[in-house]
Design brief:
The protein is α+β, with helices and mostly antiparallel strands and 186 residues long. It is 40% helix and 25% strand. It is built from 5 helices and 7 strands. The strands form 2 sheets. A 5-stranded mixed β-sheet has the order 2-4-5-7-6. The protein has a two-stranded antiparallel sheet with strand order 1-3. The N and C termini lie far apart (48 Å).
């Protein structure tokens, strides 16, 4: 279908984004929207989604491709395993000195011991299994680029859903646009 091709080409274009590691929140949200559109077409409306941003998405910068793995997890481990229609909510907002990107689903959720396993994998940098790989990668990229106090926080209730928050430096003190990065002396 035409919709699929348009969503896919947009997704690929934004994923490549001229090789830059840092993109605007606008681009990151557009990218995840394209991904969700593709998945919706493939999964015949298994879920609905909303995307909401409370900051200026063109003036806030983030590491690219940090949302897509979280949304993919929400779909594959949360929503596909539940009865009834799924819902994914993606939000961007400020909280204290952080800029937060949040992915929330109403999927199957995690048992407490499973949640503990996943949290341990992230905190102790123990890569245990492929299911955690996307989250692990995103967390490590954020910690390496922004510092140890940043990264993922996960909360989940079995049979109710999961929320993953990405804690990033706030726009004022945090990531600047690629053009403003200090170039090393050649």
């Amino acid at each position: 279908t035409m919709n699929m091709i348009q969503a896919l080409s947009k997704y690929l274009r934004l994923s490549l984004s001229k090789g830059s590691e840092i993109v605007t929140v606008k681009d990151e949200l557009e990218n995840v929207k394209s991904y969700l559109q593709i998945r919706q077409i493939r999964n015949e409306n298994l879920f609905t989604y909303t995307i909401d941003c409370e900051v200026d998405p063109e003036e806030t910068w983030v590491l690219k491709l940090i949302l897509q793995p979280l949304v993919e997890n929400a779909l594959y481990h949360g929503i596909k395993n539940k009865r009834g229609k799924g819902k994914i909510t993606v939000r961007g907002y400020r909280e204290g000195s952080f800029f937060i990107l949040e992915v929330q689903d109403n999927g199957i959720g995690m048992q407490p011991e499973r949640l503990e396993q996943v949290r341990n994998a992230l905190v102790h940098k123990q890569f245990v299994e492929s299911k955690v790989y996307g989250l692990y990668n995103v967390n490590e990229r954020i910690r390496l680029n922004c510092g140890e106090e940043y990264g993922l926080r996960i909360s989940s209730t079995y049979q109710e859903g999961t929320t993953v928050k990405i804690f990033l430096p706030d726009a004022d003190s945090g990531l600047t646009s690629p053009a403003e990065e200090i170039q090393p002396d050649s």
